[in-house]
Design brief:
about 190 residues, alpha/beta, five-stranded parallel β-sheet, 7 strands, elongated
Length: about 190
Amino acid sequence: MSPYPVFLRLEGRTVLVVGAGPVAAEKAKKLASAGARVRTVSPEVSEEYTRLGLAVTRAPFDEAHLEGVYFVVAAAPPEVNRRVFEAAERRAIFVLAVDDPAHGSAFGGAVITRGDATVVVGTGGRAPALSGLLREALEELLPVDLAAWVDVASLLRPALAARGLPLAKRREAVLSVLVEKYARQGKGAA
């Protein structure tokens, strides 16, 4: 079955990171920047993780660490990720197991962010290297001012919704405004 793509609002919610290596540090940094309250448990802590300044419980994972947690990132060896996954499943908590899809209920993707515009490429956890290659290709194709596109569409949204336009017609209207904007700027079609 194909995974269901979704963006999570983690602001103010507790997220558990199991493991404190370099990959865990990358994930924790992104979680913190999304406003999550990052809680970390790991017997060992890498320099990269230490530099984040996040508190770490220096201990092996225990199911009690899941108390009050909305989401888990398991960035530990597969046997630890398996225990995290099993414990989280009993509590109906989603787990992203880094490079270990067998022990996860959520999958990450390769991300492009430009302002509030986010494009994610995923392969259902099967081929993360391919996701990265596709992200690199898309980065070359997407306009550098994609964040400005979000601003334009955001300003148009209330008026288009008030007119009762169906979503497909709203897309056409946004595209028309973007094309006109770029034509005026002498940049060609958007």
